[in-house]
Amino acid sequence: MHKTPPTFQDPGLADDGYRVFQRVFLRALLGAAGSVSGLFVLADLMGINHLGETQLLGTVVYCLANVVMLSLTWRRALYVPLAAILVLASFAIYTLALVSVPGDELRIVWYFLGIGGSYILLGRWVGLAFTVASIGVILALNPGLPIPYSRLSVVTITLALVSCSIISLAVTAYAQGVYRQLLEANRHLRSLSLVDPLTGLPNRRLLDDRLRQTLAEGGRHPQQTFGALMFLDLDHFKEVNDTLGHQGGDALLIEIGHRLRAQVRDSDTVARLGGDEFVILLPLFAPDRDAALQGAQTVAGKLLEAVGQPYTVDGHVVARTPSIGLTLFPEPGDTAAAVLQRADAAMYQAKADGRRCLRVSKGGADRAPLQTGADLAGA
């Protein structure tokens, strides 16, 4: 079995939004590192700041490497290797400066910048590793430096590096926590925009999206893939609100949503458009159109029976029946709006025929619905 290779990134940080931030940060670091190293090279060539032959060569290579890596950051799959190369190359150039530029007492500061960058780019474990490696290199190389740091300076540098690491870890963890909260809030808001807040069913927006998907699938396989759309409206629902209040009406709508969902497959969609209007979308795979229509009518009959059973709302027994309009699609030139319009027209025909029944549209947005269908007790 194929296994995904491990990466340096912390678990839970593979979200696209956070990775976008990391890629932007990587580009900023590469640009800054390339620019700063280029300025060091320029200063050496102008005689302003002498790096030494070894350090100059290393800085030139480092500058060019940053430029090349910056040009590759637009390839998303290369993020982790590029970030790892940057961290390792930075550590190497900092260590080279520590050994080759003894006159620069502040060269140790570069390790502090590397710690913060490694935490952000590759997570806490790489940040901790960078911290430990920095302290280890300084302790190991300091005695052999042309101008070694004093024992007190080494202690101060070590404590400062540890403090920098702790602060970087805390700030990064806090930033990741804030990001996750924002991500969750965004997901919640998106969910609210797609779901009816009362029943928890898909709303008009999500229904339109799924209807378009079903239409597209039917267009690709017109001889085998069909869709059925049912427009269901409760008969005399206003009387429930008048007698039991809106709270009782809401309770009834919630129960109707449960009954509708119980009668269809997980792949089907039961949506509430508002008020007492529900829409049921059935993707159908059938050998021909007649078989698809027969399957849809069978489901519609179950819905008529299930929704028409009595309800108990706030201690009151309530009996309400549905009227259902059904249309099959795709028709030539069909759109989501046209399919909904046909099903809606068929539902109004069911209302006109006495309610508590199913009416099936002939098909075609400009045709009247065909007065055939399944009745529970006759229209």
Automatic annotation (TrEMBL):
Gene3D superfamilies: 3.30.70.270. Residues 225-363 form the GGDEF domain. The keyword Zinc-finger does not apply. CDD domains: GGDEF (cd01949). GO terms for molecular function: catalytic activity. Keywords: Membrane, Transmembrane, Transmembrane helix. This is GGDEF domain-containing protein. InterPro entries: DGC-Regulatory_Protein, GGDEF_dom, Nucleotide_cyclase, Rev_trsase/Diguanyl_cyclase. The chain crosses the membrane at residues 20-42, 54-72, 78-101, 108-141, 153-175.
